[in-house]
Q: What sequence folds into this?
């Protein structure tokens, strides 16, 4: 199967055509955008190219939360699937998918998997939920199907079942949250499973970064690669965009599918950043019927690359998510993103599970507490982790040691779709 990511000027010409259709569509069918265009006196016939998009104000997470159903462009009788965002830092927002939206979702994911070297010869083990109103789990399954490959739907957790499925079905690719992989490896070691000679050749890593800004493996990526000779592919996706940026074999950023999204990366003043610079990811969704979005600010901060990739593609690429604007922590005079804290914790082989709590003191200052397994609570460990935080971040958080079973329940909640490594209390 050929990649759906077209890599020439024709795709961008098609992008302009799809944009014009989108503007006409939302100006007719979206209560929210009709109101926005009227308020700002926007002439919709003047929006003809990607450059013209700057005439339209950004759409924010608050807009989606406050006017959720006003974004819906079809009668609810046409909705084929109901999903919600993960609600990591706010209440979940509903997204409505039509049959055509579901088809778009599958086409995009098939292209993404193909970008990561996938073919119809592969068997994918899906280590993520297909339920709990999770769009991504549905996308992975549909993408595998459209690729013509095989799917083993195991779901999250359950190391025994994961390894039993690997033995039974010989999958070549895992789709998983990367922080689960060290637990999978540890289980294999404890149960004498020859994981190094399994059928698994690569892992599509979802929901968490496995690379630093310079594309070298971060501490989580290093922990996996130091023990298992597999290929790791980083991805970036969200429910709002209904699409994914996925790495090719070069591992130099996730590729844009220009038939599915218009991408902008902007600075704090809303201006487009230059090649290689850091900015906030802004997307305009193309080909969406149910809830299309114009200039949606994701809150995610990434470096953007407009130059051609060594794989031959000229599509724009995004580096790993450095952090979310809403998750920036000011701690003891230092600005920290949670990913930096995770990196320090992932450097320590003693730590197999953790949760970072962010709270406020009586003066409104950020406080950081890290929950760790009680069995590693020793003076030597505490000295080691304190020294590591001081050397890497120049600050030290508080530590609380709890029973592993209690910590596991806090991190892997049944009602959540992803591990809760970070909470605000």
A:
């Amino acid at each position: 199967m050929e990649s759906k990511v077209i890599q020439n000027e024709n795709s961008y010409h098609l992008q302009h055509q799809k944009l014009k259709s989108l503007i006409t569509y939302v100006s007719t069918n979206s209560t929210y955008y009709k109101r926005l265009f009227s308020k700002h006196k926007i002439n919709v016939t003047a929006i003809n190219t990607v450059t013209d998009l700057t005439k339209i104000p950004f759409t924010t997470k608050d807009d989606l939360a406050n006017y959720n159903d006003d974004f819906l462009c079809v009668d609810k009788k046409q909705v084929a699937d109901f999903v919600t965002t993960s609600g990591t830092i706010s209440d979940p927002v509903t997204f409505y998918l039509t049959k055509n939206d579901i088809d778009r979702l599958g086409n995009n994911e098939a292209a993404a998997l193909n970008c990561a070297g996938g073919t119809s010869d592969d068997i994918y083990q899906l280590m993520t939920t297909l339920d709990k109103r999770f769009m991504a789990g549905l996308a992975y399954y549909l993408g595998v199907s459209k690729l013509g490959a095989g799917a083993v739907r195991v779901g999250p957790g359950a190391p025994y079942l994961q390894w039993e499925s690997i033995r039974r079905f010989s999958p070549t690719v895992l789709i998983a949250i990367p922080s689960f992989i060290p637990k999978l490896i540890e289980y294999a070691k404890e149960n004498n499973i020859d994981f190094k000679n399994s059928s698994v050749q690569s892992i599509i890593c979802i929901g968490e970064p496995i690379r630093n800004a310079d594309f070298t493996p971060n501490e989580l990526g290093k922990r996996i690669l130091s023990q298992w000779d597999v290929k790791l592919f980083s991805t970036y996706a969200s429910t709002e965009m209904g699409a994914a940026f996925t790495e090719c074999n070069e591992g130099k950023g996730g590729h844009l599918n220009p038939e599915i999204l218009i991408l902008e990366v902007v600075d704090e003043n809303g201006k487009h950043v230059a090649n290689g610079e850091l900015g906030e990811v802004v997307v305009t969704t193309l080909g969406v019927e149910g809830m299309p979005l114009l200039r949606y600010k994701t809150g995610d901060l990434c470096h953007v690359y407009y130059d051609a990739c060594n794989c031959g593609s000229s599509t724009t690429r995004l580096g790993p998510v450095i952090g979310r604007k809403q998750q920036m922590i000011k701690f003891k005079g230092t600005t920290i993103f949670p990913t930096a804290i995770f990196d320090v914790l992932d450097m320590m082989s003693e730590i197999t599970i953790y949760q970072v709590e962010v709270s406020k003191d009586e003066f409104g200052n950020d406080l950081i507490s890290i929950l760790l397994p009680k069995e590693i609570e020793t003076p030597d460990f505490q000295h080691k982790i304190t020294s590591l935080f001081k050397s890497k971040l120049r600050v030290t958080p508080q530590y609380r040691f709890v029973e592993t079973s209690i910590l596991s329940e806090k991190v892997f909640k049944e009602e959540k779709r992803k591990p809760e490594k970070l909470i605000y209390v």
